[in-house]
Amino acid sequence: MAPPRGEVLQGTLDLIVLQTLEVMGPLHGYGIAQRVRQVSDDLLKLNQGTLYPALLRLEQRGWISSKWGASENNRKAKYYSLTRAGRKQLLRETESWERMTALMARLLGGTEGA
Amino acid sequence: MGWLRIFGARWRGLLSKRQLDQDLDAELRAHLEMLTEENIRRGMSPVEARYAARREFGGVEQTKELHRQQRSIALLDALVEDLRFALRGLGKRPAFALVAILTLALGIGSTTAVFSVVDRILFRSLPYPRDDRLVSFGDTAPFEANEFVLGPDYVDWKKAETPFESVTSFVPGGADCDLTEQNPVRLKCALVESTFLPTFGIEPFLGRNFTSEEDRPNATRVALISYGLWRSRFASDGHLPGRTISLDGRPTLVVGVLPAQFEMPNLGHDDILVPAALDGSTDRRPTARQTILRVFARLKPGISIQQAAAAMQPLFEQSLNYVPPQFRHEVSFRVRSLRDRQIQDARVASWVLLGAVLAVLLVACTNVANLLLARATGRMRELAVRTALGASRGRLVRQALTESLLLGVLGGLAGCWFAQLLLRLFVSIAPDGIPRLEQASIDVRVLLFALAVSICSGILFGLAAALRRPAPELLTGKENQPTARGLLRQVLVTVQIAVSLMLLAGAGLLLRSLWKLQTVALGMDTKSVITAAIDLAAYRYPDSAKQLAFFNQLEARLKHMPGVTSLALSDTLPPSGGMQATFLSSIEIPGHPKFSAGTGGMIGYRYVTPGYFPALGIPIQRGRGFAEEDRSPRERPVILSAALAKRLFPGGEEPVGKSFRFGSQNDWRTIVGVAGDVKNNGLAAPADPEFYVPWKNETEGYFRSAHVIVQSAIHPQGVAEWIRGETAAIDPTVPLTIEVMTTRVGKLTGRPRFTAVLLALFAGLDVLLAGIGIYGVVAFLVTQQTREIGIRIALGATPRSVLGMVFRNMARWTAAGAAFGILGAWLCSRFLESLLFEVRAHDPFLLGSALLVLLAVAFLAGWIPARRAMQVDPMMALRYE
Q1: Which residues of chain B does A88 touch, with a Cβ-Cβ cutoff of 8 Å?
Q2: Spelled out in words, what is the top-level CATH class assigned to the domain A12-113?
Q3: So where are chain A's domains?
Q4: Which residue in A49, A50, A75 is closest to B30 by CB distance?
């Protein structure tokens, strides 16, 4: 059964979250979810709930940190921000992701050529 | 270190659960609200907006659950949950929990108690570094249990190339020595070489070892004292090394204090080590006095005991050249591990007891397994519901195992307490000479063992119930009773019966052997005989004239004791060994060829006063006993034991009146009588040949130690007081050990009695547990078959036939268990052979009795529930569903 829309690969979610925090700075869960939706043009639509275990996982690894703050309309919200270790991890993951996509591109391109 | 941080975070997650849950709630709520607002801003109605937000967000509860799992150590979390559930389950059925825990406590407790004893004997390392490399080696000969080395051989071997890293020795027997300062005290001194401590890898606790210069004849006297003596006698004085003490009246320099955990390799309780000061003599002439040594060594790296023995063989064969040719075939060479040397014959008994308690544990475990199975049957529907609600198979197995592990650990805790009691019992009933029993205790190592046993048994008995697959059909509400269900339980009971029968048969063998041992004919009458062992201090009684004076005085005083039927003195006492001895080949009878095919073994002899034979009720079979006149220096009579008479005069020739000479004594004696055989080599062995010479009124052949033998009709306590008083009147410093002769003989059966009593105890426990097991299974089956029985009764079955039905069923697996048990007993009793006395390992009568006992127990255990089956009311049974 083909998924109707881009399912989030385990592991890529981490990368997406880290990248979002890198670009946007400290952000609460809702903000991250909105940002992901915007960027992906609704192509990649994740169940927003799944974001929270991922955030916890990243925090446990020390890649992001969290603290309570007030949102734009003065609501109490938890803000996540990238740590130095997270930044390094992002670099590493971006690299390996690029290697992977390059490989895939070459592979698929080759198939097309044959 | 990443995993550590994660683990830390998760650990915190486990601890501050509520706070984190609240945080998460707040966070998710905020998210949903923001989503809703966004939706409203897009133009949805508030209700619609909230639904849309929920949809977009996905399952809130699932998110929370996922979050929680991520947060905590999921397994641990589940474990805590399982434990809580299991505890609640046990609390709900206290009777079940109590029976299971008690059963396990019996099994684990016995196992732990026995382990704490045999661990020291069989497994635990000896208190020396790299103890597995230590060996004892030397010659073995028929007259000596332990290997020994003769002084000259030792000198030669030390110079030769050997497979040993280092070699050392001590002089056996040690010596009594007296600390002759104020409050003189009798101590035990061991004569050891200066290489002794280094070979065993022991460093003195204080001071130093003695040097090789100090370990020479005529060197300054030095000593190492034991930790215990240092504590008790010298008040833990740190400056003791370097001080001079008075030992046997001579100044001796204390050079060091031994560490607290030091023990002699022969497990002797020595207080002081003094240099052996071996003279290095290689004089092997028959006139030379050859030292006998106990030799110990540390193997070179990579050399096994067998290799060491092979490497020493040439040296040993060389040494044989000095042994008179007729003795050579009796001497052989042995290298064995220090542990083997120490535990001697305790190994078999240790394994037997360990095997017995493991059997008890097995039966206890099967009982609990049966209980759990019965309970699992009652819980089938609950499990089916849980399966239907989505619990995975693994989750259910884990839950069941948690429960059995909890039972195991609780049983183990109770078991440790029980083990403590049992151990105290062991120590109180144990005879002397069980190696290291006094050290046995429930320590960390034993507790770890108990824990391992608890966990293993928890898994063992829990697995059967845990692995059963709940049948979803049970949800339909129909009670389906596949007959196969009872099968596992019946197999378990079969195992119980088999194991119990084996134990029972083994215990029967040992008890019967003990009974034979206790009723063995001693050859003497020990009734109303009291003995007093007297040991004169060397420094107070240095020469035989002084010793003679003491004993003469003592004899004269004791003669006047009221109520004494007969009184005797002797240097040694039957039935234990330890008497003076000579080789059979050294005995000469005029007109008879000397025994020349070897040493002929040792022939013991005793110095006795004329009262000896009447006092101990030893019959004089021919000729006469000793008379007072025989004690005068002119008379040289000798009395042979019947066994020796038969040995020396095999043709039925009359021994009385013949001449007799032994050892290096040049004087001929006259055989005046033949006395009945008396057990003199322990109870199990046949009486060894021996002879008696009179205790003389002259200074020849005197000794510092002797036994007073008193036969008296009056109360032993009074006699003991009298002897004490009279001895003290002569010399209050003389130590006395007074014993009733029957107690003394009883001590000889101590070891076998200990083993037999323990094995019987465990067999009894085992049979009891098996009985409970059988009861449980039959009761279970009867309950299961209530309906069937009801129908049968309704259709006209008599109570008898119902009983028959239940018993037929039971008979099948009882018979199977009995068959396996007989087979097992037949195979295993071989291992008991070395512990048995005059009982064959395969005694059909005993095996049959054990079988009968077990069948009776099985019948009884089955009878109670079976009777209930007879009383089933058909109406009730049919309405049962």
Answers
A1: none
A2: mainly alpha
A3: 12-113
A4: A75
